[in-house]
Amino acid sequence: MHLKGFAPILLVLPVAIITLLSLTATIAKGHNQETRLFPETISRFIKVNKPPVTQKNEPGNLSSTPTPAPTDKPSPIQEYLAVAKEAPSPSPIPTPAPKPASSGGGNTTSGGNYIVATFNLSSITVVTDSANDDNCSNNCPAKSLAQFISENGGRAGINGTYFCPPDYSWCSGKVNTYDFPVWNNRKKKWMEAEKLFWDGRGMMIFRGGSPQFYPCAKCSNASSDITGGIVNYPSLLAGGQILVADSAKGTRNGIGFGNGKLFLVSARNSSYLDLANIFKSLGATDALNLDGGGSTALYDGGYRAGPGRALPNAIIVK
């Protein structure tokens, strides 16, 4: 009786043990899954928020420069662009209407210390004019070079002879007078004609665009069938030969011609010899010095040199 009652217990015991082991395994599995979730969550947080790592470029390391940490302060270029964007646009400067091209192919250029206006002689007329219509002994009239050009229908010009300016004390009593003959093309006569044949002066005359030069003015016949004529000193070039040899520097101006061209030149810090060499380098064969210094004025569609003092006479290119 006693053994028969114990048998059912022995049969149930293995089943209970198997069930207990299975339940234990299930609980352990669930616990392991929960412990794996926590480190994965922490790992993602670190990846998103960790500060940038500064890399050192060791020799042979070709990695790019690390990106700097973000900042709220704008870069200098951002600040510049912001200011430029906010600043009002400047008002456009009006472009002046271009001057009509010279019928003589005028071209003003500079070469170091000088400015030259060049024209084709075959396409221009050169005239000379004086502010006075008769000989004058004191307080003589004077005009700007631009006024001379405008009144004669020209487009270019240069100052003329030496004269006695009002700012020279020794010119008191003979202001704006000149001792160098000039052809007044409006009146068709020579101003200061009695001085045409004084020694040591050169003469340049024009019949339209046809020039002639006399390094010895008194050797000429003082033509009256001309459009322009001026006497001054010194003569610079004649037949391609240089006629001066001085070395004193100043602002020099002159007129010359050669190879079908007319040249109006203004040169700074130059001697008469320098001016002669400038004309020769341009291709001139004949050239005459004009007034300089504070009387300097060269105009070609606008002032290229000067303007200086008001002038009693001038050379005009039409």
From TrEMBL:
<feature type="domain" description="Phosphodiester glycosidase">
    <location>
        <begin position="224"/>
        <end position="317"/>
    </location>
</feature>
<feature type="compositionally biased region" description="Pro residues">
    <location>
        <begin position="89"/>
        <end position="99"/>
    </location>
</feature>
<feature type="compositionally biased region" description="Polar residues">
    <location>
        <begin position="52"/>
        <end position="66"/>
    </location>
</feature>
<dbReference type="InterPro" id="IPR018711">
    <property type="entry name" value="NAGPA"/>
</dbReference>
<dbReference type="Pfam" id="PF09992">
    <property type="entry name" value="NAGPA"/>
</dbReference>
<protein>
    <recommendedName>
        <fullName>Phosphodiester glycosidase domain-containing protein</fullName>
    </recommendedName>
</protein>
<feature type="region of interest" description="Disordered">
    <location>
        <begin position="50"/>
        <end position="109"/>
    </location>
</feature>
